[in-house]
Every structure is written in structure tokens, then in C-alpha cells.
Write a structure and sequence with these properties.
By secondary structure, the chain is an all-alpha fold. Helices cover 74% and strands 0% of the residues. The chain has 16 helices and no strands. The protein is globular. Keywords: Membrane, Transmembrane, Transmembrane helix. This is Membrane protein. InterPro entries: YkvI-like.
């Protein structure tokens, strides 16, 4: 029973880490999949298989090399120097993305709840700080609440979509987009999201001793991501091409289902922003504490203050410059992950003497303490 519970917690955390604000609003799904018409169904299946395979592989390798942070994992894939540089760039992207998500939380509070913009920001930061005091268990708990609600809402939207005449559009929807771009999209989408998600999934794997729970959690998590991609694509395809004009495509669909569904949807977007913000801040904190001689309880609020400050300015334009670069790095990162062997762990404690042989490709990461 304990293994089953842990498996579900890992699966929900995996899904919740990938399903950020862009996913929940439908904008990511629209841009990477739905706009490609009849190709989207197949490309979503490709993306699902990649999430199931590579997400699971990443967590198992991270556990076996005892990686404390995503920097440790990147150093394993690329070597010390290149891995550290890639991790530094990932850090910048994570802070930038979270500052934008924080701004999104403020916008939801202001536009839909009638509260002040700064109130939304401060409530998100304060709530995140107290949840982060629980560590990785707090992240799993929030995702174990939010993700089942998101899955339930996805099912409700599918059921309602089945009632309209355009429900079958996803099968024959025509598009002028290039088939080559359509088939590149699932690779880019999976690579980018896994590159971001490693900040959470690597320390999660490090704190999970049950390999079976880790394996099935990754498989179920990847399948869950695929299910949510398919349901959102199915719903948005029925509204094509008109839905392209909306900034929040899934919101336009949810709002058609009545005020109760509308409120639930807005609540879930807020919770998704919150859960992703919490998870990313945790990952950044874990990495920074390996370099800074400062207590984690001080690093966390420091990172939050930086995100808060950036959310007040036009950082999104600068981030749009970094995004393509990070996207390219993510492709290389996935390529290295695919090539990385699943080195078996030691059979017993005595095997540590021969660890040079066992960890030929996946040796535990060691660090020298800075004075």
C-alpha cells in the first residue's frame, strides 16, 4: 500500500510540474499541437511516450547517482564544466519563468477576484514560503490535491465537448502548417518541459528509495500528461479556428459551461501557478545551497524576493530572447539523456569498493566543500 501511495504522489508531482500555467490555459497545447490539425493526435502520442520514457529514466538515473540537484544531474550528463554552465542558464530561465508566473497570479487576483495586483503576488509568495518549509513532502501534497482536480475538470470538458456537432474535428481538421514542424513540435515540447522539470524531479528521485514507485510513478505521470494533452486538444479542436483569437483558449471553453465551472477553472489555474512556483523555487533553492554558505531558510525568501522584483518589470521580453536558446539546449539535453546508460546500482554495501566499475557511466556526484 505504501508503494502505491508513493507511486501516485510521484505521478501527480510529475504531472503538476509539467502542467504549469501555459498548459492549464491551453496556450501551449494550441501552439505545439492543436494548430497542426489532424497531425496533432499522433504528435501528442509521440510526446506522451517521450514523457513516460525519458521522465522515468531521468528519475531513476538521478536516484542511482545520488544527485542532490539538477546541477548534479547535468554534471553527470555533460561533465563538470559544461554541466555547471547549463545549470546556470537553467537557473536564469527558472527565475525568469517564475517571475512571469507570479505576475500571472497577480493578474488573476486583479481581473477575476477584484483584489489588488500586489495582493495576489504577496499571497502567492507567503503561501509558497510556508509550504516550502515542509520540503519535498509539501510539494507532493499540493500536487496530490491539484492534479486530481485538473484531471476531473478535463473529463468534464470532454464529456461536454462530445455533445456538440464539431466534436469530431480533431480527426480531420485541416491545416496549412508544415508537417515537418508538426513532427518537430512534440520533441521540442517534451525537451523544453523536461529541461525545466528536472529542477523538481531530480531531488524528488533522490528522496525516493523505492525504485518501483519511482518507475511506475514516472510511467503513470507521463501517461497522465498525455491524457490531459489529448483532452485539451479534443476540446479546442472543436472550436477551431475561432479559438486561436483567445489568450486563454481553455478558459473560453470552461466559461461556456457555466459560472461554477468558470470559478473552478480559475481556482485551478491559480493553484497550478502556485504549485509550479513552489516546485521551481524548491529546485532553485536546492541548487543554490550547494554553492552558497547560507541556510536554505534564507535562500528561499531571497529567491522569492528576486522573482517578486522581476515581476514588476518587463522581464518577459528578455525571457523571450532566452527561450529559443534554452529550447536548443533542451534538445541537446534530451539527446544526452537518451544516450546515458541505465547503470545498475550496487548490489550491497561491499560493492562500494568496486564502485569505479559499477558506476562507469553513472558515478555518484561528489563535491568539495568551499572554504
Amino acid at each position: 500500500m505504501k508503494t502505491k501511495v508513493r507511486t501516485l504522489q510521484i505521478a501527480f508531482t510529475y504531472i503538476g510540474t509539467i502542467v504549469g500555467a501555459g498548459f492549464a490555459t491551453g496556450q501551449e497545447i494550441l501552439q505545439f499541437f492543436t494548430q497542426y490539425g489532424r497531425w496533432a493526435m499522433l504528435t501528442i502520442l509521440v510526446s506522451t511516450m517521450l514523457f513516460m520514457w525519458l521522465g522515468t529514466k531521468m528519475m531513476i538515473i538521478a536516484q542511482r547517482i545520488k544527485a542532490e540537484s539538477y546541477e548534479d544531474f547535468n554534471r553527470h550528463l555533460f561533465g563538470d564544466y559544461a554541466g555547471s554552465l547549463i545549470s546556470l542558464f537553467t537557473l536564469i530561465i527558472l527565475i525568469g519563468v517564475n517571475s512571469i508566473m507570479l505576475a500571472g497570479a497577480g493578474a488573476i487576483f486583479e481581473e477575476h477576484l477584484g483584489l489588488h495586483y500586489q495582493t495576489g503576488l504577496l499571497l502567492t509568495i507567503v503561501g509558497s514560503y510556508f509550504l516550502l518549509r515542509r520540503g519535498i513532502s509539501g510539494i507532493m501534497q499540493i500536487n496530490s490535491t491539484v492534479v486530481p482536480l485538473m484531471l476531473t475538470l478535463s473529463i468534464i470538458i470532454v464529456i461536454n465537448t462530445l455533445k456538440i456537432p464539431e466534436a469530431g474535428h480533431f480527426l480531420w481538421l485541416d491545416t496549412e502548417r508544415s508537417p515537418i514542424r508538426a513532427w518537430l513540435s512534440p520533441i521540442l515540447y517534451t525537451a523544453f518541459n523536461l529541461g525545466m522539470a528536472q529542477a523538481v524531479l531530480v531531488p524528488l528521485a533522490r528522496h525516493t528509495k523505492d525504485v518501483r514507485a519511482l518507475k511506475w510513478g514516472g510511467i503513470l505521470g507521463g501517461a497522465g500528461i498525455g491524457f490531459m494533452l489529448l483532452t485539451a486538444h479534443f476540446a479546442m479542436s472543436s472550436q477551431m479556428p475561432g479559438i486561436l483569437q483567445f489568450e486563454i483558449p481553455m478558459g473560453s471553453i470552461a466559461f461556456q459551461l457555466g459560472s461554477i465551472v468558470q470559478i473552478v477553472y480559475l481556482l485551478l489555474i491559480s493553484l497550478e501557478i502556485f504549485s509550479t512556483f513552489v516546485a521551481d523555487i524548491y529546485g532553485v533553492t536546492v541548487q543554490l545551497k550547494q554553492h552558497l554558505a547560507i541556510a536554505p531558510k534564507l535562500i528561499t525568501p531571497g529567491v522569492m524576493i528576486i522573482c517578486y522584483a522581476l515581476s514588476q518589470f518587463g522581464f518577459s521580453s528578455l525571457l523571450s530572447l532566452f527561450y529559443p536558446i534554452f529550447g536548443g539546449l533542451s534538445i541537446v539535453w534530451v539527446y544526452k539523456l537518451i544516450l546515458s546508460p541505465m547503470t545498475p546500482p550496487p548490489k550491497n554495501k561491499n560493492d562500494s569498493k568496486d564502485s569505479g566499475h559499477i558506476y562507469l557511466h553513472a558515478k555518484p556526484v561528489t563535491r568539495t566543500t568551499r572554504k
